Fold each of these.
Amino acid sequence: MASETEHMVSFSQGVMQEVEKAVVGKRPVLEKIMAAILTSGGHILLEDYPGLAKTLIATSFATALGLSFKRIQFTPDLLPGDITGGYIFDRQHGKFVLRKGSIFANIILADEINRASPKTQSALLEAMQEQQVSLEGETLPLPNPYITIATQNPIEYEGTYPLPEAQLDRFMIKLSLGYPTREQERQIIESRHQRKKDQFDLAAVSDSTGLLEMREIAEQVYIDPDIEFYIVDLVQRTREHKNIAVGASPRAALSLLKLGRAWASMQGRNYMLPDDIKLFFYPVLSHRIILNPSLWNSKVANENTLTEILNSVTVPVIQGI
């Protein structure tokens, strides 16, 4: 096991170092994205202001991991078939042939996903959950691994379609990047000045086979029964809190489990700690709870409610590890 955990540490650090050649000063967020990528169903929702490197992060991870990448710009006139593809008539051969859409790639960037209609948004549901697409009664598997990274702008709501709860629940984590510090922004400018071009020269440090092997290593991480109960208690409290109209689903509990395992393996451990769960509590739960209508206008109610829940659950003491 020691050699496997060392391999995981080397793998994750290698990917992070390559991504950080392009993305400056966002290591805490990048590490959480790395953990999500190391899990099955690790789809990511990035919500932040324009120009904060959301697209750059997606392309950088795809390049560093050696995975196929497609970007889909979501617009009001985008149709489901534009994403999934479909059958078209080939006049030369006199038959219908399959033209695969952009969804057939390892990493899909759904840029400004809330600008498309609900019908188009729903085209991702089957892909995100089942890793397949149904076309004309035929089920087509998507590449393995398959990861959706979606972005949305939190300040422009006119002409947008908020994601339904069913689709939000399929995103393992929701993250925000925030503005860079003064020094970080200077580094961004200096890096562009030295490169003398907009593009970044990143190298692939792995491929799809390597990533799937790392996922297998993460699945071997031990979880104490007390930590299992800790996860369950946290999620169940969201269904009981007075400020919450609709609590988190069991998918949230599974997300905490998978992310905690991935994070532990990234740290070189083959066992999980309660702190691994705490680290992902807000990214996993923030988009999965619906507050009571009286609190919808409060920007801090969501975070404060989750903080109350986190502080109200007894942290298990793990011994003998």
Amino acid sequence: MAEDADSKRVLVTGVGGFIGGFLARDLASRGYEVIGTARSRQGVPLSVVSSCRELHAVSIGGATDWTTLLAGVRAVVHCAAHVHIARPSRHDQRLFQEVNVEGARRLAEACRGKKVELLINLSSIAARAVELGPERAGYGHSKAEGEQAIERALAGSLSRHVCLRLPAVYGPGCKGSLGLLFRLLGSGLPLPIVTGAAKRSYLSVWNLADCVEHCLLKPPSHSCTVAVADPTTLDLEELVLTIAQARGRRQPLLRVRRTTLAVLARLIGRGRQFERGFRADVVDPAEAMVALGWQPSLSAAECWARVVAAR
């Protein structure tokens, strides 16, 4: 452990984001002293600001100086990233490399220098997909490279790391496709459903927060990379019905042929995203149990009920 480190002092990066903000609030509510970083203090919700003992504006990259921020820190929860974009520009590609790879490397090197006990890096199951395919650029590749950079930087040191590979994460205020789906269901309009969609894993912010604290309380004996998810996989229809049940409403469904939606998706430039939705993206819950001794305590139904109650 870092010299003079406070066992309750935790650095959380990216607290201006959906996941980082939730984890900052959750850890503070559990008695942790949270040191938060964000690209800018402007736009960080007041509930997050008040949860942080300190909040610093930090531009994450290969030249970031973490020395002062890691003083007395026992563990780091690294949430900050340049996130997935459907059509990344060249500028986005540069940011994937600078933030997700070089930024992760620099933070890990600083943790090694300050003898921080544990670095929890929030990665993505997109990194796993890179291992299985020929992709050599983009978000998933940058997250895989970031994992490798952390592993190399901390090899042979007193600092351990846990790279948590996350599927789509949901909770109050979630954005992206799950946030859009939640809003569409709230409209009451019939939702187009295609039969034959693949099962996919999802992760609620509550199960994620529980996993993070489990790692803080019971750090693994050795560094590892592990995927975590809710206990149940769902296809699109099952997900829609789960959310509708949480809302206490019947959801009208409009069954549409896959070929019809595929044509429409291509016409609006979303053909690749549409086809990706028909590929299975499943996390084995046993993976986290074996590697971390942790398993999710809340079901998808319980978590979506919490999302509804929070609105």
Amino acid sequence: MLPRTLVTACSPSLRRLFALNDEGITCLEAYRSSTPKSDSANPVIFDALQHLPDHAIGAEAVGFLVAGSDTTAFTLTSAIWHMSQNPSIKCKLAAALKEAIPEQCEGEYPTLMQLEAIPYLVACAKESLRIALPVPGRLPRVVPGATAPPLVVDDKVVPPGSIVGMSAYTMHNNEAVWGSNAREFEPERWLGEGAKGLDEQLVAFSTGARNCIGQPLAQAELLMTFSMLFRNFDVELDAVCEKGFTTKDRFIASVKGTGVVLRLRRI
């Protein structure tokens, strides 16, 4: 194995990766030296990993950090691109935010509970997760063994031990569920009687026992970012990205190039 000093000198990318891993260990050390520790009613991830060696715990900490950053960043980028070029959505969202938050003093922000009580804002967040889901591909799962009930799909039994998966992208674009405008950004689909049952079809965070542990945080980030941006600014796309943007899928979707460039005018 090459010495770390040599590797970092030759590769700036690996230098940053090593620094990220070091941050995970630093967080673990800070947790162990903190007083008091987290209690049983409010555990943190480190509480469940004490049986692992330190390097593995640090790697898990980094995994949580990364999983909660570029995923949400992609959803925000893609959703803001859709929303900022649609005057109807912008106006409805701004009006809903102004009605719910009529006055805002400098440095004061609405609480998460206030934001969750704004139906159109919540609808925009859900539609963002549907259209701009950050993990569009299949997530593999192993069919349980003989002691579990058989897995039956379309009247066919899938043998235990089989590796199966579903495509979130396919589910989120299924016209049988979402209608003929399934590929359009349409927050109204989440409002009224037609919205019943749609939450069960939203699988941006996967579903079941292995769903994403960070989804409450991600949802809060969407609500807070959208409220801050569209409550305070008239948002327009800069000419450099008016023709859209292209994405790449490397398990987690990302935007090619510089992302979305905006022009903001305070309102």
